[in-house]
């Protein structure tokens, strides 16, 4: 049994997947800037509605991005934590594949830019929308399609399990964080 998390977008989702039977349970919640709380509520719902226990999973999966920097880290951290706690492997899938592995997928990048992934090709950034049919989410996209943990079921053949300690998100660009102009320690010593 696999428990998978997707937290890279406005929607947090969890799915429980059996390799033979498919999706046993799934839940999602729109949770902008609240993926960790949403996942805890979804795990509780999983236990109550389906009687499934986290400790019974033999693999934990997570959406490794791209997407919200903090959101991606929530799902990866949950998978890593449970993998480490229960001694189970973890595996990742991209946000692109958790939307659709077989279609052109768009995800928001920086302001007025998108990540575009065509099946079988590496993603790239663009300000232009493709003229072909696509799925995805972000500003200006009429029908929003978010990554969903239940779509791990379509990726079982290509999952690469790894140890919890070495599992990390996949970054396509550097996070847009600023570095302090004056190091914190030097400003403390200057103020005495």
- Helix segment count? 4
Assign a percent range to the helix content. 10-25%
What is the N-to-C succession of helices and strands? Answer: EEEHEHEHEEEEH
- In CATH, the architecture of the domain at 2-99 and 148-164 is 2-Layer Sandwich
Number of strands: 9
Adjacency order of strands in the biggest sheet: 3-2-1-4-5
Shape, please?
globular
- For the residues shown, what is the average pLDDT? 91
CATH superfamily membership of the domain at 2-99 and 148-164 = ATPase, nucleotide binding domain
CATH topology tier name of the domain at 2-99 and 148-164: Nucleotidyltransferase, domain 5
Main sheet? 5 strands, mixed
Indicate the low-confidence ranges by residue numbers.
none
The Rg value, from CA coordinates, equals 18 Å
Strand content: 15-25%
Distance between the termini: 57 Å
CATH class of the domain at 2-99 and 148-164: Alpha Beta
How would you sum up this structure, described in words?
The chain is an alpha/beta fold. The chain has a domain at 2-99 and 148-164: ATPase, nucleotide binding domain (Nucleotidyltransferase, domain 5). It is 24% helix and 23% strand. It contains four helices and nine strands. The chain has helices spanning 35-50, 69-86, 95-99, 184-190, and strands spanning 2-6, 11-18, 22-30, 59-63, 90-93, 105-108, 114-117, 124-126, 135-136. Strands 3-2-1-4-5 form a five-stranded mixed beta sheet. It is globular, with a radius of gyration of 18 Å.
């Amino acid at each position: 049994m696999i428990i998978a998390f997707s937290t890279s977008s406005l929607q947090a989702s969890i799915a429980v997947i059996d390799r033979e039977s498919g999706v046993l349970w799934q839940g999602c919640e729109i949770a902008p800037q609240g993926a960790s709380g949403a996942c805890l509520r979804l795990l509780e719902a999983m236990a109550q509605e389906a009687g499934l226990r986290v400790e019974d999973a033999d693999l934990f999966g997570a959406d490794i991005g791209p997407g919200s920097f903090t959101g991606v880290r929530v799902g990866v951290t949950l998978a890593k934590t449970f993998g480490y706690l229960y001694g189970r492997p973890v595996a990742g899938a991209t946000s692109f594949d958790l939307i659709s592995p077989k279609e052109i997928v768009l995800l928001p990048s920086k302001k007025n830019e998108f990540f575009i992934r065509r099946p079988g090709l590496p993603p790239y950034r663009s300000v232009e929308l493709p003229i072909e049919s696509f799925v995805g989410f972000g500003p200006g996209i009429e029908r929003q399609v978010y990554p969903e943990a239940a779509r791990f079921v379509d990726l079982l053949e290509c999952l690469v399990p790894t140890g919890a300690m070495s599992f990390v998100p996949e970054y396509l660009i550097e996070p847009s964080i600023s570095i302090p102009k004056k190091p914190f320690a030097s400003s403390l010593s200057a103020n005495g």
